[in-house]
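Notes to self after the Tuesday call (sharing in case useful).
The group wants a holo model before anyone commits to mutagenesis around the pocket. I volunteered. Ligand is fe (ii) ion. Logging inputs and output together so the record is complete.
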Amino acid sequence: MKTLIYGGTFNPPHLGHFKAAAAAAEQLSPERLLIVPDNIAPHKEMADYTPEASQRYEMCALAFQGIKGAEVSDMEIRRSGRSYSSDTVALLREKYPEDELFLLVGTDMLLSFEQWHDFEYILKNVTLAVISREKDDKEKIRKNISYLSGKYGARSVVLEAEPFVISSTEICALLPERKGREYLSDSVYSYIIKNRLYGAKPDFDWLREKGWSYLKKSRIPHVMGCEQKAVELAELYGADVDDARTAAILHDSTKKLSPEEQLKLCDTYGIINDKSEMETPKLLHAKTGAELARREFGANREVCSAIRWHTTGKPGMSLLEKIIYLADYVEPTRDFPGVEEIRKAVSESLDAGMAAGLKNTIDEVKGYGTVPYKDTTEAYEYYRKLSE
Ligand SMILES: [Fe+2]
Ligand SMILES: [Fe+2]
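Result:
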């Protein structure tokens, strides 16, 4: 049997890694393709932003899905300390004594091979499967292979693959700028955003695509309008525009759930509700939506809080909380009677807008013959006094 070893830091695993593994799987047809994330790389310092080894392992499990025979091994992570390929090869040699072992290496690794720990042992036990990392490095590869083979009897095969010219380090530098997602699989990118790795902030096109997938189609124009209005208000009143955009995109993500589903999600998320909230599950989407934004989209505290209070309001709201409450209320697709007066109040001040919006809600609720929610009446009193 053929076993191909593909080790690396995978920080994070990107499409270049995937393509290299896929090309190797196709051209060598190994029965086993072991992806081995290292615990601590032997040859370089791990960057400060490096996530836990277990998180790199989980990202590898997502990144290499779909490649025949691929499995992610935690053998180096479990071994702890610096990860030497020679130790890994020794363990695999022992575990699979009859196997033909291959080690996948990129051009850069091949050029520094003599600096590897116990490299002569590795060369005795594996065939190098070399994949180019840069354009036009065929000659470099050929020379090095012939050198290693002449001096140490190294065995090797050169794989045909289109080089993928971006590194994990470069991708990490792009992620905080809301860029770089095109170099990652969607599942790895989602994992990075969800777990707030590398200081990554979501690309807004991606966030819309994911956020809207939670909505009924008919609600998308409202959420688009809310985003537009939230950005406008954030610019006008000096709030963080990106936070306003994020909160607006995600504010109604759990709105389509039925009351039963809302209560079930509250249970899953450990959200505790008082009696009146249990009786008005329609309002719970603010709480579950805030929690979903935090858990699935790595949203910060300000964004989650703005989503949390967008239905009822409360006294003493933050700038962003007021912006999302009001953007939701007066975004361009809203056309209920009285919306123009609230829009006018919002353009005068956010507090005046809050008073007008809250009063409208209280009148509307009373019109149905129901009692307004406590946070809403308290908020109205608060903003009415402030805007007098
Ligand atoms: Fe809502
Ligand atoms: Fe809404």
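Two things stood out.
The chain has two domains: 2-186, 210-386.
Residues 2-186 form a domain with the Rossmann fold fold (CATH 3.40.50.620).
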